[in-house]
Amino acid sequence: MSTMGNSTNIFWQESPVGKLERQKLLNQKGCVVWITGLSGSGKSTLACSLSRELHTRGKLSYILDGDNVRHGLNKDLGFKAEDRTENIRRVGEVAKLFADAGLICIASLISPYRKDRDACRAMLPDAFIEVFMNMPLALCEERDPKGLYKLARAGKIKGFTGIDDPYEPPLNCEN
Ligand SMILES: Nc1ncnc2c1ncn2[C@@H]1O[C@H](COP(=O)(O)OS(=O)(=O)O)[C@@H](OP(=O)(O)O)[C@H]1O
Ligand SMILES: Nc1ncnc2c1ncn2[C@@H]1O[C@H](COP(=O)(O)OP(=O)(O)O)[C@@H](O)[C@H]1O
């Protein structure tokens, strides 16, 4: 019996089928590829190419994209620091479940704070591949496919990453 967060009197329920059996069935090992970077740096483009390539090679993957997850699971969250942290925590937990299920989970989110990404890495020892889209702000701003940098520069969006909200580059990424 244990206490986790606000839940008390909870017990861990074992599954009849283990992780190794799932890996054998799928002929692959689950892991998380975590793509981080500024808006417009190419995260979603890379996530889509990677997923397509893995599919072609017969590997099962699933993309958790920040924009998409914010349409459902995380639609109650905004962009203040606590909300971004909670966004990353939830996606990290979901990614962990996908990896445990045996999938190659591709998470593409700005995930601007190092401590939040590191917390996800700590949840997935040996199965967390952090990829940094190391593109200069000026290039992302020039691309501006959604017109959001323009709005941020005009003061119409507050707390935009890279403009008036921080992005902390990884110190220990895998690329
Ligand atoms: N204030 C602010 N800052 C940054 N981004 C913003 C903001 N408001 C809206 N958007 C849009 O939301 C997308 C990023 O969502 P994420 O969940 O990846 O962000 S975060 O990881 O919680 O920081 C991001 O998508 P991408 O451009 O694909 O990165 C933007 O389209
Ligand atoms: N390697 C690349 N070279 C040139 N343009 C790119 C590259 N990757 C992405 N783009 C373009 O940059 C823009 C932003 O890409 P996107 O994947 O939506 O970024 P993010 O998900 O980080 O916001 C899009 O218009 C996309 O076509």
TrEMBL record:
Pfam families: APS_kinase (PF01583). The keyword Kinase applies. It catalyses: adenosine 5'-phosphosulfate + ATP = 3'-phosphoadenylyl sulfate + ADP + H(+). NCBIfam families: apsK, PRK03846.1. Keywords: ATP-binding, Kinase, Nucleotide-binding, Transferase. GO terms for molecular function: adenylylsulfate kinase activity; ATP binding. The lineage of its organism: Eukaryota, Viridiplantae, Streptophyta, Embryophyta, Tracheophyta. Pathway: Sulfur metabolism; hydrogen sulfide biosynthesis; sulfite from sulfate: step 2/3. Residues 29-174 form the APS kinase domain. GO terms for biological process: hydrogen sulfide biosynthetic process; sulfate assimilation. Belongs to the APS kinase family. This is Adenylyl-sulfate kinase. CDD domains: APSK. Catalyzes the synthesis of activated sulfate. PANTHER family: BIFUNCTIONAL 3'-PHOSPHOADENOSINE 5'-PHOSPHOSULFATE SYNTHASE, PAPS SYNTHETASE, ISOFORM D. InterPro entries: APS, APS_kinase_dom, P-loop_NTPase. It comes from Gossypium mustelinum. Its EC number is 2.7.1.25.
